[in-house]
Amino acid sequence: MRIGVLGTTVATGPSGPVSLGGPKQRALLAALALHRGRAVSADTLADLVWDGSPPPGVSGTLQGYVAGLRRALEPDRTTRAAATLLVTEQPGYALRLPDDDLDTADFEAAVSSAHTLVAPLADALCRGRALPPGSPDAGGLAALHDSLDRALGLWRGVPFAELGDVPAAAAERARLEELRVLASEDRAAVGVLLGLHATVAAELDALTRVHQLRERAWALRALALAGSGRQADALAVLREVRDLLDEELGLEPGPELRAVQTAVLRQEQIATAAPAPAGDVPVVPDPPPAGVETHAPLPFPALWPWSLAGRDEELAALTGLVDQVVAAAGSSPAFVALTGEPGIGKSRLAIELATYAAEQGVTIAWGRCSQDDGAPALWPWATVLERLGSQLPSAADDDDQAAAFRAWESIVQTVLDTAERAPLLLVLDDLHWADTSSLRVLRLLTEAVAQESPARLLVVSTWREHPVPTGALAEVAEALARKHALRLQLRGISAEATAQVFAQVAEAEPTDADADTLRRRTEGNPFFLVEYARLAKDGDLAALVADGRPPAAVHEVLSRRLATLEDATQDLLRTASVLGRIFDLSTLAEVARVDEDDTLDRLDPAIAAGLVAEDGVDRFRFNHALVRDTVLSGLPQSRRARVHVRAAEALGERSGRETEVARHWLAAGPRHLARAWPAAQAAARSATAVYAYVEALEMLEYALSSQDEDPASTPADRFEVLADLADVLRRAGRWLELREVAHEAIEVADEAGDLDLLIRAGAMTSTGALWTPGGGEVDDIVVDSLRRALDRLPEGDDPRRCRVMLSLAGETYYGSTPQEREALAEEAVAMARRLDDPALVLNSLIRSTIATWRGANAGQRLEMTTEATHLARHLGDAVGLVSALALRAEAAGELGDVAALEECLVEGRAQADRIRHVYAQLFLGSLAVSWAAMRGRFDEVATLLGELDDLAQVVSIPGTAESIAGALMMQSLWQGGEADVLAVLETLPVDGFVPTTPPLLTMLCRTGRLDDARACLITHREHLDRAVDADTWYSPMAWSMAAETACYLGDLELAATAYELLAGLAGQTASAGSGSTIGPIDMFLAMAAHTTGQDDLATRHAERAVELCEQWRVPLARDWCLRERERLGI
Predict the structure, then answer these.
(1) Are 933 and 1116 in contact (CB under 8 A)?
(2) N or C, which end of the chain has less CB nearby within 10 Å?
(3) Position 843 in a domain
(4) Domain that residue 114 falls in
């Protein structure tokens, strides 16, 4: 098993990649790998995995993840066999792996080993000395180079990515990064000794840009440039580092840099390795024919310090053409046109191509057009000819058009003659700035090549797609099309590629959400993206993205483009920028107070410039969010506010534009607060209707903050916004926040003195719940408000009284007897029926099911939820239907009604997914785990657990951690992992929300630790008795486990008690709500009867248990029952 943490955490086994589960489980493995085999306490692991803020009940969840990792890493480990990779060791856990099976250890060992050999060579190389005696020959150095290549290739991204910025991970990242730089320097030194000067120069250009104070890297870069025949560039690099050291540190260059400078000035031969022994000499291509320069400097800019991302297909197509050129496999020269908007990466792609071509021995001739008006004619061709050892033809005395044509022919012939002798890549960059003569030469080149022309020529041209080419450039585009040129129109890179570039520039891994935001913000334009990444390196990414001002470099580029437009167009764009990234013609015309035809006329230049694009009929969009931001930043705030007012008024009567209206009123300034918060509330309701809960919450937060500043806002106004907020939080599964909102709503209702508002506030935390509210506690604030409301209501049938009784029954679940709650619930349901209100009846049935939840009334709950399901369908109540289906599935599961269970699971999960009901998704997912596990469908279990883990990241529902821990334990239990379940239980508090003493005792017994079980029973008898005495949703499982414990320990009193409690539940499942099911209750009745000496009775129960398992189609539960029968002899 090999573990990789130099990037996202991965594992590879003999059969290939291993599924490690959800992000938290991968983070746990990363945390263990961080400690390199040392034992780590559970508290430390929790802090690492949850970034210092572990949730309540984390111990059980952590143990569940440990069990999951053990199954993933050792799938062939037999039941109850000790783990050998992820082991339990005081004070917690340790990851036991050979060093070469952990990529960080492998990387460190490889780098350290290589550095021992390379260090003396690099010292001699950079100090101008002879290589030490016994230095490796070329073959040995090639092996070292390959070793360092392999080590550096282990890096796949940010190490320990799942651990975020926790200090321990950050410190280890810094140490590993230092080793990576050292390895890069060592590889560069070996590359220089092997004569790989051009490649090394390109690599070190990137390295020295990022690590600017590493003198060794600068020295090697200068040597590599000199070795490439680029002495002038080498001296320029040495001047650059000298200035840098002086400015940053006030230091002179060290001895290595001084020695290299002397060597370059003297044009000394760069040291190289001794040849390899005969037979080991690598095959190299024959030298090019005489006259073809091979040592001239590469004529294209150095690579950026971040890798090319998102252009794999394009680069593959281009390198394929290079391969054809090298092999002379084509029938004629090849042409390529790279087009796209500014900053999209045309030049970068061409440079990557040129780098590849240079490595293949291709001559590179690069001509870049100048943006400056004063640039000489034929400027790009002058640099091309210089590279080819020629120069522009001199002007003839008869300086006419014929002479010019002869000069153009001469340039073309020089290119073709060079390509006759050796492969040639000709790049003409930024043709949108080219002078007409330069374009004429290129067109002549396309016309001059014919079938018999050299096939070893590849011509790549780049230009911007906006404005659309005209004149000579249009003629070139047409000529290239006739030659069937490969046309690559570059678009923005993907979110995945965005994350890759950002991580390399900012040296921080963005979240998926951040990457998506950046992709949308920049449209995947690499230039814009890099500017954000550079700023984020020293600042907060979220703040940068939220800031309407683009980065300075982006702003400057866009401002220059905007300045070329007429004033009327610029004014119109400023108005459009207030409307948003996308705008429509009628709204823009109305807000700008311009006729629609005139508006179109003014937009045309912006469209031609590529700043604005049509987005359908009479719809337009700024080509980039940053274009819009640049325009908007030029509009003073006071004028901007007035445009917002006009926009809000223009859109106010248009359906479906509520969010736009709200944003405009919110931005219109303090004079318009009274219109801002109602607009935000209306926008939130529209967003809620389409399940856009994040957007709805944002609008409601705006509404509340605007109300705070609006003196005309009343308590009743605030209550309605709070009620909407509670509804959205409920739908989004954020119940902990919902309780806080309910408390504030109760205060506001009391302030207003409004009974109806008080009733609504008191019902907020129990309405829509699927589990009992409060997480094991009673909310005194809510209960008090409900009791006060009930006292103030008149006697008699009243919908309000019905709702208060339902809420009170639910909120007092953990503070009253089942009889008290059932009395309230039964009266509420009866009252709803007398009032003949179908919606109220539906609400009463659902909430009564939860308030009265216990094993003894499972049949009644199935009847109520069946009625509720039919009623919800009749009313078209989607939320009510999902709730009814979920609760009906659970009741059917308790009763062993498999047909109803499966029907409700399938439909309930589909409906919950459709309306994004996260509470129901969590409820039904945890219920499905136990049944899938009992049926041995562990692939399905793994999928379900992954979905639950994802849900746990976005919801804050009391009981979530306990539910997921229970689901994880069910996975382990039905795979024979009682020891794993026990390990989880031993970390949990015995007096928590979910009583853990019954399962703890049972797992101690099942794993053979009977003495420990007896000691635990003595220590925690009070907790066990409390769990046994309770009558809740958890009781069927608690009583069943008490029976099993009594059987193992021979406790007659406990067995008799358990039998009495379980007798009325015969035929049902031993379950704890929607989270755990451990088999048929009849098997536990058999255990209790056997313990009290009633073996005939025990046998009948055991036989019935096996029959039930067969009816329920749960083979693993049946097998367990058969094993227990054999163990007990019944």
Answers:
(1) yes
(2) N
(3) no
(4) 103-265
